[in-house]
Amino acid sequence: MKEIKWTDATSGALTNSVQYPPVEQTNTYIGISIVNITKSDWDSWKSFKCAVDHQNEEKSVQVEKKPPTPKVILLREPKGNNQILFCTVRDFFPKEISVKWTKNGKDETGFTNWDPQKNGETYSTLSLLEVPNSDWNSEAVYSCEVSHRGKTYTRKASKVPITVTLKQPRAKEIFQNQQAQLGCVITGQDKTTVEKSQITWKIDGQTQTGSTTGTAVPDGNVYTKISTLTQTFDDWLTVKKVQCSAEGEDVSPVTQEIIVQKDGTGPKITIYIPTEQKGEKVILMCLVSSKVKQDYYIAWTDDNERLNGDYTDGITFPPEKTENGYSVISLYTTTKTKWESNHMFHCNVRHAGSKEVFNSSVSRALDFLNVTLSLSCVQDDPEDDFSSLWSTTSTFICLFMFSISYSVIFSLHQMKKN
């Protein structure tokens, strides 16, 4: 085997190479040559050629640091009667690049391109297209097409190709399985667009792995795809922000985020019962109030479920601002049979950033007792010493009756459970 020669991009010979004697292996020979180049030459993506003349035929191979793939992102920002479309291209080399726009597949004019700027070892650039709202609302498809090193990278944007909904953790999973289960729902009218959308999760800025994503399924007139990310409850206690993003070839990034509201203040919990029970269902309402805004996880149980460690999600509404702070409402539906059988129902509450559990309980028996006592034990304002004495005496009687009634009801309730 003749000498293995090294040259640079200008065909200049590299003399600082080392060639080893050929080694026989399975009736063939292997020749090895090593050349040293400077880090600056390698990092500048210079190319080098390794060549050998064998049996009057030259064989060669090109060696170079593989340039990074350009990162193309299409963003949109409304501005008055127009939509501003930004096409950012980052981390590419060499500098030569071409950016153009199309509308429904036809070349668009009037866009502005910026000269590539060097950022470390790579370049970045930006292209801007201003679109009238009348065109944008017509659901026209705009494409940013980037050509670099013989390849074309395309990002498309149109009016709401998909929507992203990020759901809070289910209270049932937090109480029952000590897990925070987050759901990211992708919705769109085009099945292919929804199916090909790539979903990325971030917690406090760090990309997360381990999520599970389903396929696009019909949901009325649209298609949906759900991605689920599960955290242990201990890990969830430290979380401040969650982001879910969807991106695809025909979709610029759409991101939703949850800012975890946590203060550590214990809530006040009140359960309300409808004055009229109609039909075979009874709806209980749990009002959770606090002076500060924070996230609450509300799950319901009855006595049997509580013994088995089972919890049920109610219908929980977003926090509302009140005169004295914030409140959250959760609705729970039970059967009339259970309610009239004096089952005890519990509204269980945790607030973000804490393992502490708050709860309030109610049953038909306790509700009936409260109503009876409110009717029989509230007296008019005393008018004289006699009425004052009677008021005091009646209060003691009511308290005595209350203690007896409560003991009887509690005993019956315990017997029913056993």
Keywords:
418 residues; five-stranded antiparallel beta sheet; 9 helices; 5 domains; Immunoglobulin-like; alpha+beta; transmembrane helix; Immune_Resp_Modulators; single chain
Task: Please explain how this structure is put together.
With 418 residues, this protein is α+β, with helices and mostly antiparallel strands. It has five domains: 4-64, Immunoglobulin-like (Sandwich), CATH 2.60.40; 71-157, Sandwich (Immunoglobulin-like), CATH 2.60.40.10; 163-259, Sandwich (Immunoglobulin-like), CATH 2.60.40.10; 268-362, Immunoglobulin-like (Sandwich), CATH 2.60.40.10; 369-417. 20% of the residues lie in helices and 49% in strands. Strands 6, 7, 10, 11 and 12 form a five-stranded antiparallel beta sheet that branches. Strands 15, 16, 19, 20 and 21 form a five-stranded antiparallel beta sheet that branches. Helix 8 packs antiparallel against helix 9 (385-417). The longest helix is centred in the last third of the chain and has 33 residues, at 385-417. The termini are far apart. Mean pLDDT is 82; it is low at 368-418.
Sequence-ordered SSE layout with sheet pairings:
Layout: E1 4-8, E2 17-25, E3 28-35, H1 39-43, E4 47-54, E5 57-64, E6 71-79, E7 82-92, E8 98-103, E9 106-108, E10 112-113, E11 117-119, E12 122-132, H2 133-137, E13 142-148, E14 151-157, E15 163-167, H3 171-177, E16 179-188, H4 191-196, E17 198-203, E18 206-208, E19 212-213, E20 217-219, E21 222-232, H5 233-236, E22 241-248, E23 251-259, E24 268-272, E25 281-290, E26 296-302, H6 303-308, E27 312-313, E28 315-316, E29 320-322, E30 325-335, H7 336-340, E31 345-351, E32 358-362, H8 364-376, H9 385-417
Antiparallel strand pairs: 1-4, 2-3, 4-5, 6-7, 7-12, 8-9, 8-13, 10-12, 11-12, 13-14, 15-16, 16-21, 17-18, 17-22, 19-21, 20-21, 22-23, 24-25, 25-30, 26-27, 26-31, 28-30, 29-30, 31-32
Helix pairs in contact: 8-9
